[in-house]
Amino acid sequence: MSDAVLPSAPEAMLPDGAIPAATLVIMRPSEGGGPDEILMVKRSANMAFAAGAVVFPGGRVDPDDHEVARRHGAGIDPADGAARVAALRETLEETGLAVGWPGLAETEVAEVRRALLGGTLLSDILAARDERIALESLVPFARWCPNFKEARTFDTRFYAVAAPPHSHELTVEEAEHSHIFWASAAATLAMADRGEVSVIFPTRRNLERLAQAPDFPSFSAHSCAYPVELITPWIEDRDGRSHLCIPDHLGYPVTSEAFERVRRG
């Protein structure tokens, strides 16, 4: 009798019309000495994508992000570079935290944030200040493109970075978000399990992965041990139940979830 052949993961394919995007996991030491805390934002209830869900800051890649990457991302793949720029820019716009911008003083953050939200291009701001952003400070660790035929399909690159020192209060950009908080990956998952917050499938899987590492240096080392491959979850029947699945070789401790429990977007 021949050995049974286990089902293999289907080849990940980038869906037509997928919107390039980026998200940033910002980690800081906990004052209580536990695992690093992560900056989370809650999306407004009126958003077309992931309404009301708790997510990492980030958003779509804009045309100007490619120009900034061309000027500041020497040695980085252009698409990767533009996504890194988007992650930094969106984080500043959404939360008021300037990551990867060593020349920007804390007292100048609010003014630059207002300029970006008002439509001033990041490339023009950097040129006027004769400064650069440190795209190399971001650690790439994942790329997700769920194809659930929702209102929008995002091709999202995930990065991690250590939180810069800051003393000013972080605030959400109210057009998109309603709440901001710091919590460890394990604490956020516990809140989700208690029904206090809602997380979509990719966020939950990445929080589970982050919860394996106690701090940013450890997670950076973990990330370097696995390839960054496109993840497009698929549905598979397991013991008579439909499960949403991801590959099992990319560092995720949980690679499937019963489909009826999944919040997709």
Characterize the structure shown.
By secondary structure, the chain is an alpha+beta fold. The chain has 7 helices and 11 strands. Strands 1, 2, 3, 4, 5, 6, 7 and 8 form an 8-stranded mixed sheet that branches. A 3-stranded antiparallel sheet has the order 9-10-11, with no helix packed on it. α5 (185-193) crosses α6 (201-210). The longest helix has 18 residues, at 78-95. The termini are far apart.
**Structural class label:** alpha+beta
N-to-C terminal Cα separation, in Å?
44 Å
Strand content: 15-25%
Which whole number gives the mean pLDDT?
A: 89
Extended strand count: 11
Low confidence ranges:
1-6
User: Helical residue percent?
Assistant: 25-40%
Q: Count of helices?
A: 7
Order of helices and strands: EEEEHHHHEEEHHHEEEE
Outline the biggest β-sheet: 8 strands, mixed
**What global shape is seen?**
globular
Rg, Å, rounded: 19 Å
Name the descriptors:
265 residues, alpha+beta, 8-stranded mixed sheet, 3-stranded antiparallel sheet, 7 helices, 11 strands, globular, disordered N terminus
What is the element layout, followed by pairings?
Elements: E1 19-28, E2 37-43, E3 54-55, E4 58-60, H1 63-72, H2 78-95, H3 109-117, H4 122-129, E5 139-144, E6 154-162, E7 177-183, H5 185-193, H6 201-210, H7 216-224, E8 230-231, E9 234-238, E10 241-245, E11 256-258
Parallel strand pairs: 1-6, 5-8
Antiparallel strand pairs: 1-2, 1-4, 2-3, 2-7, 5-6, 9-10, 10-11
Helix pairs in contact: 1-2, 5-6
Summarize the structure.
With 265 residues, this protein is α+β, with helices and mostly antiparallel strands. It is built from 7 helices and 11 strands.
